[in-house]
Specification:
- With about 375 residues, this protein is of the alpha/beta class.
- The protein folds into 2 domains: about 160 residues, Bacterial extracellular solute-binding protein, family 7 (D-Maltodextrin-Binding Protein, domain 2), CATH 3.40.190.170; about 130 residues, D-Maltodextrin-Binding Protein, domain 2.
- It has a 5-stranded mixed β-sheet with strand order 2-1-3-10-4.
- Helix 6 packs across helix 7, helix 8 packs across helix 13 and helix 10 crosses helix 12.
- The chain is globular, with a radius of gyration of 21 Å.
- Bound molecules: calcium ion (CA).
């Protein structure tokens, strides 16, 4: 592993100007710019006990929601500590490759990553539960499980095995089912299909005879255009529009069974994190919770308009998976979960806690959000 100082030496740091420019375009940089102006007015601040932090990420620089959300978190930690905790952010490929982010932080070479913990399912299948899992929890359900029903404790046990700790630091909400070049009318249509889908959802696809492929976001478009993959899922309308998948695939399916609410994680090197003061730990954890809320709000605000543009301006055909396909997904998920539980005691415990949360927390979601939205929109003709 490259030592931190060595790898930083001579390496071009990410351009803050570029970030501010991009962030201003998305309307998120007002607070950050204001704090910069204040610093200019009063001259360079003398900061005692400065803590230098490297944050690597699995996202392309400035990518809407994922990249900008991570960059905003890095900025916010600095602002909340009056510049004492200084986070240098590295997008995918700027310090390490996207999928090397976990090892980078577990080794202590960097202190933090921002990513999706299901990218690490090959290290331990239980990681799949802590981003999103097939037939799993939505955003409010996942947060209820994590904060109040044992999820965080199990996540901590899992990351303890690797010397890291993860906190929720964003969410994309319910994801779309994906982009296809052909209609998906039965489970047989997945046979031989090469589709980008990471995590346990990808394994479900494998049970239907498909070939799941895990690719970081920055590599999906080129593989779809070249035909190296036949289909892909990514996130939802706002993010998928930015990826321009509509240039290579026409049919856009919903709802995705694989990621009903994908939590983004800020992973920290645990021995580094626990060496911080309690208040510094709280600054980081509180910034992560803020990032979670603000990221989800941005997705919810922007997905609807993006979907309308895809359909009306790009000729995308919106399709819904039928019951037969969904039932096949459910059978595939059952088989995948059986394998996950057999992996280890921790995987079995995580699964049991997840099932309990899905039943208990999900019973309330089913009686509250779902019927209310359905009835509101029906009665008002929305
Ligand atoms: Ca996805």
């Amino acid at each position: 592993m490259i030592k931190e100082k060595k790898s930083l030496k001579g390496k071009k740091l990410p351009s803050r100007r570029k970030f501010f420019k991009a962030a201003a375009a998305t309307g998120v940089a007002a607070v950050a710019l204001a704090s910069c102006d204040q610093q200019k007015a009063s001259g360079p601040a003398v900061v005692k006990d400065r803590i230098e932090v490297s944050m690597v990420a699995t996202w392309p620089r400035d990518f809407p929601g994922l990249g900008t959300g991570a960059q905003r978190l890095a900025e916010r930690i600095g602002e909340m500590s009056d510049g004492r905790i200084q986070v240098t952010y590295y997008a995918a490929g700027e310090r390490v490759k996207a999928f090397d982010s976990f090892d980078e932080v577990a080794s202590g070479n960097s202190q933090m990553y921002h990513g999706a913990d299901y990218y690490w399912v090959k290290k331990h299948p239980a990681f799949g539960y802590f981003t999103a899992s097939p037939f799993g929890l939505t955003y409010p359900e996942f947060n209820a499980w994590t904060h109040f029903a044992g999820g965080q404790e199990l996540w901590d046990k899992l990351t303890d095995e690797f010397g890291t700790q993860s906190f929720i630091a964003g969410n994309t909400g319910v994801q779309m089912g994906g982009w296809f070049n052909k209609k998906i009318e039965s489970a047989n249509d997945f046979k031989g299909l090469k589709m980008r889908m990471p995590g346990l959802g990808g394994q479900v696809l494998g049970k239907l005879g498909g070939s799941p492929i895990s690719l970081p976001g920055g590599q999906i478009y080129e593989n779809l255009v070249s035909g190296a993959i036949d289909a892909t899922e990514w996130v939802g309308p706002w993010n998928d529009e930015a990826m321009k998948f509509h240039e290579a695939a026409k049919y856009y399916y919903y709802p995705g069974m694989h990621e009903p609410g994908s939590a983004l994680a800020c992973g920290v090197n645990k021995s580094w994190f626990t060496s911080l003061s309690k208040s510094d730990q709280l600054i980081i954890k509180t910034a992560c919770a803020w990032a979670d809320e603000i990221t989800m709000a941005e997705y919810n605000a922007k997905n609807g308009a993006a979907l309308a543009r895809l359909i009306n301006d790009q000729g995308v055909q919106l399709e819904k998976f039928n019951d037969e396909v969904y039932d096949a997904f459910a059978q595939g998920a059952k088989e995948v979960y059986a394998e996950v539980q057999a992996h280890s005691d921790l995987a079995a415990k995580t699964h049991a806690s997840f099932i309990k949360a899905r039943k208990e927390i999900g019973s309330w979601t089913n009686l509250s959000d779902s019927p209310y939205i359905s009835q509101r929109n029906r009665a008002l003709g929305i």
